[in-house]
Design brief:
Layout (H helix, E strand, L loop, with lengths): L1 E7 L6 H11 L3 E5 L8 H4 L2 E12 L2 E2 L9 H5 L21 H5 L5 E2 L2 E12 L2 E8 L6 H19 L3 E8 L3 H7 L4 E6 L3 H16 L4 E6 L5 H13 L3 E6 L4 H7 L4 H4 L4 H17 L2
Parallel strand pairs: 1-8, 1-9, 2-7, 2-8, 9-10, 10-11
Antiparallel strand pairs: 3-6, 4-5, 6-7
Length: about 290
């Protein structure tokens, strides 16, 4: 089984639109939206939810006022200073370390598991899909990414499918690390801007650190040909395959507004031909 993760050093490069386009071309696959902090692949794929499960991770302390003797030990031990003088825990400030729970002489502090979000298994017009939604300002996004990828693999094995097409999160943080570990390859979608080039280089270094083969494509390449050449020069120096250049086309945005892939919206355009070329490059390199 192969897994290709589409990532980007920064948001807004067209990563999700490209994943949606690939979903029109790929066969025998499971779609996986690992961008749990800002999931949006479902806006195009229009999934029908088959299974819905709460995501629980981390703990937050709760002081039982009926048992608390106000000995003040918890306030002295809390390095986050999140316990008030009235012995109430600040939910946002609590890091869930559990020190107060362990040392409370009256066992007056509860430590429930947090419900941080939810994850889904769905059917779409492109095939099965696993996706999730992290709660507002919730933590443990890396754990949720790992869970979503694991469920996608389990679903692929169950259905006898040999490809996982994953929409990864942007950046280089914990969610990205969780999304690329053990993947067959990553496709880095970048754009010819200063920030796009800089963040592309960072995420390429991250992939190299974890020994995940990387490929690059440049979206909206014709907005700055000089920076496009700089991006391709960097890729050549790092022995990273450049699979293609996608020209700027408002059809991407119009397709999203219609909840369609760019192929469904307008087939036969230069953009579509370039995306097909990029997908063929992925197929050849992963031997799909």
């Amino acid at each position: 089984m192969k897994e290709i993760v589409i990532i980007s050093g920064k948001g807004g490069t067209g990563k999700t639109s490209l994943v949606a386009a690939f979903s029109s071309l790929a066969q025998n696959k499971v779609l996986c939206d690992a961008d749990v902090d800002a999931a949006d692949l479902h806006l195009i794929t229009d999934p029908i939810v088959i299974r819905h499960t709460d995501f629980q991770a981390g703990n937050t302390a709760r002081i039982n006022q009926n048992l608390c003797t106000e000995c003040d030990l918890c306030r002295q031990l809390c390095r986050w200073n999140c316990i008030s003088e009235s012995y109430k825990v600040d939910d946002i400030g609590c890091e869930g370390c559990g020190v107060c729970v362990y040392f409370c002489p009256e066992k007056a502090i509860e430590f429930p598991v947090n419900t941080c979000g939810e994850w889904f298994i769905s059917d779409t017009r492109f095939g099965p899909m696993v996706h999730a939604r992290l709660g507002i300002a919730e933590e443990n996004s890396g754990k949720l990414v790992t869970l979503v990828r694991r469920e996608a693999r389990n679903l692929a094995e169950k259905k006898g499918l040999d490809l996982i097409l994953t929409d990864g999160p942007p950046g280089v943080g914990c969610p990205v690390i969780a999304s690329i570990g053990g993947a067959s390859a990553v496709l880095i979608v970048t754009e010819p801007t200063v920030s796009g080039q800089h963040d592309m280089e960072r995420v390429a270094q991250l992939a190299a650190h974890f020994k995940v083969p990387a490929m690059i494509c440049t979206n909206k390449y014709d907005l700055n040909l000089e920076l496009t050449r700089d991006i391709e020069k960097f890729a050549e120096e790092k022995n990273i395959a450049c699979l293609g250049r996608i020209p700027f086309d408002p059809a991407f945005t119009r397709a999203m507004i219609q909840a369609q892939t760019v192929f469904e919206y307008s087939n036969g355009s230069e953009v579509n031909q370039e995306i097909k070329k990029i997908w063929q490059g992925i197929v050849e390199r992963l031997d799909l």
